Amino acid sequence: MADKEKAAAYWSANLRLILGSLVIWALCSFGFGILLRPMLSGIPVGGADLGFWFAQQGSILIFLALIFFYAWRMNKLDKEFGLEE
């Protein structure tokens, strides 16, 4: 594979990973915490309803999990393309 093709494939994989992470984060924080909150209000989680939990804690925990997932996946992607440190 030529260097330009390799760079394009790496960048494409990186963009897919970023886009997927942003979609998950937006769905959990904006979707579950704001838009779908009335639908989730009947499901109890730790003394509060699920919509409130997503708005207050869930979106932050999902964001932290996505940070670790992104770092792990990027390290794996770097190894696949021979760009590891």
UniProtKB/TrEMBL annotation:
Keyword Glycoprotein listed? The answer is: no
Regions crossing the membrane: 17-40, 52-72
List UniProt keywords, sorted A-Z.
Membrane, Transmembrane, Transmembrane helix
Q: Where does the Sodium symporter small subunit domain lie?
A: 8-83
The record's listing under NCBIfam families reads: Na_symport_sm
Return the protein name: Sodium symporter small subunit domain-containing protein
Q: What is the lineage of its organism?
A: Bacteria, Pseudomonadati, Pseudomonadota, Gammaproteobacteria, Pseudomonadales
